[in-house]
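anyone else get weird line breaks when pasting these?? whatever heres mine. first is seq + tokens for prot A
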Amino acid sequence: MAILTKAGRVAIAESLSLRNLHLAWGTGDGAWIVPPSEDVDATHLMAEVGRRLATEIAYVTPSPSGEIVLPTGNFTRSTTPTNNLYVRTAFDFPDAYSSVIREIGVFVGTQVVTGLPVGQDYFTPGQVTSQGRLLHLENLGPIFRSPAIRESFEVVITF
């Protein structure tokens, strides 16, 4: 039986770290009281409201005393490539204000319409011509957006 080696998994993480990654967020299903399990076959968010270019992409390793603390464990940044890719995205105050966020996803290969201002890094669905490929999907309990709060999301994708 053939396997994907650890070195191969590191190579995948290296390739993705060189690409633009976007974190998209959406309203999901308004009937969700408890978020449902994620669908491994999903290719898009249920109800996307926007996406932002990742603020930070780094290699990490699991570490009980790591400075990156997530529900899945603690991680430490690594100066050498690993098979764990850390993606942090900080949204801006007005992004999707008044929305109720129930889902997030990390995408690679997003393409946007031409003619947008240089440096724009938040895009509404109407500004996206190709969403790219969904790498990570997470259903959440409701987050009520306020223009007084700057939301930030951190995920570790393990290959």
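and prot B, same format (seq, then tokens)
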Amino acid sequence: MAGITVAADLESLTKIRALVRDVAEGADAPPVCLDDLVQAVDEAATNIVVHGYGHRPGDIEVEAQLVDDHIVIELADTAPTFDPTAVPEPDLSIPPLDRRPGGMGLHLMRLATDSMEHRSRPGGGNILTLARSLDPRPKEER
């Protein structure tokens, strides 16, 4: 298992992406898996910084590990509780320019991972767990 704790600011996203890449490469993840994970984790961490903490000071704890044939990434924060898994899917039948802004990041996170789970952090905050199979095929084909 590998982990880091970083300041909840946009500059720290580079360190988080590097951790995800290191763990994925260490697990011999195919490029599509690595790209999916980096995109999903980057979006999750950005949401924590921008929406969770609202650019106020805080930390993000990130742990990454290989569990069986999945790379599992856990992001923990002390921002106000927010469950992204409870947000409904966007209505993709509405043309992009007619849609209300926002919501597509969570949609991309769901597409890029096999599972996304949220739980409240004891003492306050959030723990978001993202998992992606090492199988390079789209999840609909696995």
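btw re prot B: The chain has a mean pLDDT of 93. The chain has one domain: 2-141.
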